[in-house]
Amino acid sequence: MYFLRLGVVAFGGPAAHIAMMREDLVRRRRWVTDDEFLDLLGITNLIPGPNSTEMAIHLGYTRAGAWGLVLGGVCFIVPAMAIVLSLAWAYVRWGSLPVATSLLYGVKPVIIAIVVQAMWGLARTAVRGPLLAAAFVAAAALALAGVHELVVLFGAGALAALLAARSRAAAGVITLLVSATPLRALAAAAVAGSGVALGTMTLIFLKIGAVLYGSGYVLLAFLRRDFVERLGWLTDRQLLDAVAVGQVTPGPVFTTATFIGFVLAGVPGAVLATVAIFLPSFVLVAVSRPWLPRLRGARRAAAFLDGVNVAALGLMAAVAWQLGRAAIVDVLTLVLALGSAALLVTTRVNSVWLIAAGGALGIAWRALHA
What are the Cα distances from residue 317, in Å, to 154, 180, 255? Predict the structure, then answer.
């Protein structure tokens, strides 16, 4: 019941979700101590997937074992999925109407500002030293040049681990792992596709859920590469619309997959996309919990994750640039983007209110110039 309620009211993104969990489950209900909570938070940063969803899964397991693991995650995800599904239905039916177009006209530049602000905040923590700064710039440049995001992520992680290890043996092990990992095979399967659109879509979301490091905003880079550039199933506008819906609804940003799945293949597509993108998180939490805490003190593992994190930020920078060109099309959208960024940096305003204000201004502006 707790995670079902949290899934209905958890606006504000992963950091806000985790803050709510700490307030309720550490300070009020005392399910875990602060030290235990921080240990779980550290674990979620070591594995791919949405951090706040994985925290819900971890805390559910701590409270009620295997059933808690399943129910904690499912109850956090389902309310957001249901809300996004209803909005996707409305979008497909009325998205081309002037009021919907006007709403999204004002929302999209705000989304760009939110992505940039999140990237900046994460970079202040992740980019420690000139080598990681160089890795960030290189990752952004490679992404803009069209290099596959998995190559960028794992390449940066492997290079950072190699520099930390400073040995040829370590380099050989890293190369072998990166080339032979099941995740690489899964990515290749997704690229090859199954010949059936629904199967291909499901494989892509399964791949993304299994390999995505960083924040939910890195999801943009993966989605754009597969659905916009490679397959041509979505436009940049539709991708931004999907992210906007993921932002204005409670729960994990990964429910963007629900929206895209519905746009591409109706209710079956929405359900399959949602299950596929979240399923790896349940598996990774169940498998990693017994041994991952020991990795926090391992130098090579920590270096690998440092490289992956700054590469993820580089992907965010590249996709923010690409999507910003589609969202910022005139003076008003430029003012909305810059004003939203300034408010996010200088105040503690909830991003939901900025998105609502952007949508209202978009409607009013289009009405005045109709």
Answer: 17, 29, 22
Q: Which residues of 61-81 are buried (b: 16+ CB within 10 A; e: fewer)?
A: bbbeeeebbbbbbbbbbbbbb
Task: Give pTM, 2 decimals.
Answer: 0.68
pLDDT, greater one: 103 or 251: 251
What is the chain's percent helix, strand, coil content, to nearest 5? 85, 0, 15
The pLDDT value given to residue 215: 58
Q: How many residues does the chain have?
A: 370
Which residues span the domain enclosing 210? 2-368
CB-based contact 187:230 (threshold 8 Å) = no
Burial profile 180-205: b = 16 or more Cβ within 10 angstroms, e = fewer: eeeebebbeebbeeeeeebebbbbbb
Domain count, the chain: 1
> Helix crossing, 331-346 with 351-368: angle to 10°?
160
Alpha carbons 260 and 2: distance in angstroms, whole number: 28
Q: Cβ–Cβ contacts within 10 Å for residue 97, how many?
A: 10
Does residue 83 contact residue 249 with C-beta atoms inside 8 Å?
A: yes
Distances in whole angstroms, Cα of residue 259 to Cα of each of 146, 222, 256, 273, 338 = 26, 15, 5, 9, 27
Identify the helix (H) or strand (E) that includes residue 83. Answer: helix 51-94
Which tens digit of pLDDT belongs to each residue from 169-198?
A: 433 433 333 343 444 444 444 444 444 489
pLDDT (average), residues 39-53: 79
Average pLDDT over residues 258-281: 95
Instruction: State the Cα–Cα distance between residues 297 and 73, nearest whole angstrom.
Output: 28
The DSSP call for residue 370 is -
The amino acid at 159: L
Token pair for residue 54?
A: 């994985």
Report helix, strand or coil for 214. Answer: coil
Angle 93-190-246 from CA coordinates, rounded to 5°: 40
What spatial distance separates the first Cα and last Cα of the chain, rounded to whole Å?
47
